[in-house]
Write a structure and sequence with these properties.
single chain; 198 residues; alpha+beta; NADH Oxidase; four-stranded antiparallel sheet; 4 strands; 14% strand; globular; binds flavin mononucleotide
Length: 198
């Protein structure tokens, strides 16, 4: 594989929000998660903890918590009841329909100095790296994925309802599956807007 091909691969990953019903083979998912473990992490502490959520009951529980948090947030922002109902119904539908739902947690004990805010930050960054590695590994398998930040809004309730260990801090979710859409790349700001050279 040439470096140009690899750059094309990295640039062609898209957030995929609509999936075919075709199931994802467990072997493919396991390969993806094995590759995820190669993500860089601060001090190589690998603080990510992953949950594959297959059970329809667990998904329904999760949907109930997340839509309650979404409803509360939208009501605080004075959204109309119609908008609230549309968004919550869509959220629930996406969560129940995604072929693969992965919850990424941070092990709050996997840290060198628990009271150091910078170390805490590095733990969050490390989990984000794992999530990105999963998205790229899924892309390599011909799958699409979408990063979902909703668990951040109800982390404690998610932990309790899914009976997770107290030191598993939910950070985000990924939905994966075979793409049922081919979205155009969202615009990227030019490099000179993001970069300064000294
Ligand atoms: C931290 C983070 C949180 C995100 N949360 C959501 C989300 O909750 N729902 C969603 O549909 N997309 C979410 N995304 C996906 C972004 O919207 C997407 O990456 C961005 O629009 C660029 O599109 P691309 O991934 O196709 O390049 C999130 C991405 C990141 C990195």
């Amino acid at each position: 594989m040439t470096s140009a091909t690899l750059h094309d691969f990295l640039r062609s990953r898209r957030s995929i929000r609509r999936f075919q019903e075709r199931p994802v083979p467990q072997e493919a998912l396991t390969r993806i998660l094995q590759t995820t473990l190669f993500a860089p992490s601060a001090h190589n502490l690998q603080p990510w903890r992953l949950l594959e959520i297959h059970s329809p009951q667990a998904r329904r529980q999760l949907a109930a918590i997340l839509t309650a948090a979404l409803r509360a947030d939208m009501q605080r922002q004075k959204a109309s009841e119609q908008d609230v109902q549309q968004r919550t119904a869509r959220t629930r539908r996406r969560l129940l329909a995604a072929p693969v739902v992965l919850l990424y947690c941070r092990d709050t004990t996997a840290v060198r100095q628990p009271d150091d805010p910078q170390e805490h930050h590095m733990g969050v960054q490390s989990v984000a790296n794992a999530m990105l590695y999963t998205l790229l590994a899924a892309h390599a398998e011909g799958l699409g994925g979408n990063w979902i930040c909703w668990p951040l809004y109800a982390a404690k309730a998610v932990r309790q309802e899914l009976d997770l260990p107290p030191h598993w801090q939910p950070e985000g979710m990924l939905f994966l599956g075979y793409p049922a859409e081919d979205p155009a790349p969202p615009p990227r700001a030019p490099l000179d807007q993001a970069l300064r050279r000294l």
